[in-house]
Amino acid sequence: MKSRRRPYAEQRPQDLGGGVWSVPVPIPGNPLGYTLVYAIESPKGPVLVDAGWNHPDAWDALSGGLAALGIDVSTVSGVVVTHFHPDHAGLAGQVKEASGGWIAMHEDDAALVRLMHDYAAEEHESFQSDMLRRAGADPGEVRQAVSRPTPPALPDRRLRDGDLVDLPGRKLRAVHTPGHTPGHICLHLEDADRLFTGDHVLPDITPHVGIYPYDRDDVDPLGDFLDSLDRVAELGPLDALPAHEWIFPDVAARAVEIRHHHDEKLVRLRALLAQRPEPLTIWEVAAMMTWNRPWDDLSPVLRGMAAGEAAAHLRALEARGEVRRVPGVDPVRFQALDS
């Protein structure tokens, strides 16, 4: 059941057995290459897990890939979205238009999608600019880093942890795994010992875990993510069907690996802060951390994402009592506490 990541051009729709199929859907201009959309057989018509990026090429790949497997997109009974990001939820609205099916999403991500629809473009730009400034970005970077993604379609159904998806004859249960987004869910196909992991557990890379606004002190997304990894590990050595890269066995072992990676990253970050006598901004901390490319080579948008991840790590350390934010300063600054 294991397959390795190949370029999108080499990907093909696959029958995975047991009434489950996969369709690779391209993400134009993104190094991830594609999203693996899954279809699960149902007497009411197949249910999709995720839908892919909202782009004509992606729609052709999704509808054509389903057709190659003998599935007409008009027969889809619903789309359950692992999280609201555009490479997962982007085409859900078009699938709904073509089939009349439902869209389901965890209630926490559904609330964010509603907020995105209600937020005017100028309000979003002002919010993002102020967030970047408070993190310590210089004015030039602030102007270049502001972006506003197109919100996905609003869901018809809201899921909570433990809910069963409308999939007659099967048991597909939502497992709330916050971190990558507040409402991220994995989906446990209990009658087949399979787990659709979305972006929560991937075979080679780790998902982005950020905090927005960067200086929030009332949430701990990285702490939530680590707790969610522990929860997935407790499910045992299920076969993992992720949204990117490749299908792999023993999701529990991979969840433990990812947890260890972040625990080590937190230790290194605290050590870096302890070496600096002066408090640092979030932007300065992000520039000190290790990314898949040097900081100077990151675009302003990618620097903004890196700052979000740095902020999540700082917040996790703050929640553990290992760093503190300096009160009353703007931009916000952090420093290590004595061991």
From TrEMBL:
<dbReference type="InterPro" id="IPR001279">
    <property type="entry name" value="Metallo-B-lactamas"/>
</dbReference>
<dbReference type="InterPro" id="IPR050662">
    <property type="entry name" value="Sec-metab_biosynth-thioest"/>
</dbReference>
<feature type="region of interest" description="Disordered">
    <location>
        <begin position="136"/>
        <end position="161"/>
    </location>
</feature>
<dbReference type="Pfam" id="PF00753">
    <property type="entry name" value="Lactamase_B"/>
</dbReference>
<feature type="domain" description="Metallo-beta-lactamase">
    <location>
        <begin position="34"/>
        <end position="244"/>
    </location>
</feature>
<keyword id="KW-0378">Hydrolase</keyword>
<dbReference type="InterPro" id="IPR036388">
    <property type="entry name" value="WH-like_DNA-bd_sf"/>
</dbReference>
<dbReference type="InterPro" id="IPR036866">
    <property type="entry name" value="RibonucZ/Hydroxyglut_hydro"/>
</dbReference>
<dbReference type="GO" id="GO:0016787">
    <property type="term" value="F:hydrolase activity"/>
</dbReference>
<protein>
    <submittedName>
        <fullName>Glyoxylase-like metal-dependent hydrolase (Beta-lactamase superfamily II)</fullName>
    </submittedName>
</protein>
